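[agent] plan:
  1. take the single chain provided in the ticket
  2. run structure prediction with default settings
  3. attach structure tokens to the ticket
  4. add a short note for the reviewer (M.T.)
[agent] executing step 1
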Amino acid sequence: YCQLLGVIRTVGGQLALFAMTILSVIRMVCVRSKVPNYSFSKKILVVGSVGVGCILLIPAVIAGVPLVSSFEDFFVNGWVYLDSMLFIGAPNKQRYISIIREYYHGKIKDQNVLNFSWVRIRKLIKEMFSNDYSGLKHKPLNFYGNH
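[agent] step 2 finished; step 3 output follows
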């Protein structure tokens, strides 16, 4: 539910922002022209329809990007490992990497945190635990909350 509510809230906020901006621009154009023009041509109708479509599409894209798994390195804050207390208090990649480095005793030479994707971190963590009982269960701490 957290993700759904986060998407709805983001779309609603962005819609309000874009709508107020567009209404302000339209009002500014009408005031500047000093003559109200209430006639609607097909061109104005098409431009208006495209504008409304963009106003609806852009917030949906903005809200949906954090849910795309290929962007998890930008929007996932961490992972919760349900059967392990090892990663409690590890709110970011730096803490995960320091735990992994301690476990592997210097076998990981890469010092740049940016070179560690969440996929690589999960793979290293998976190798730390046995596959008995279906391995270690985990879920992401993502942009919109935990799910």
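[agent] step 4 note for reviewer: The two ends are 7 Å apart (CA to CA).
[agent] ticket updated
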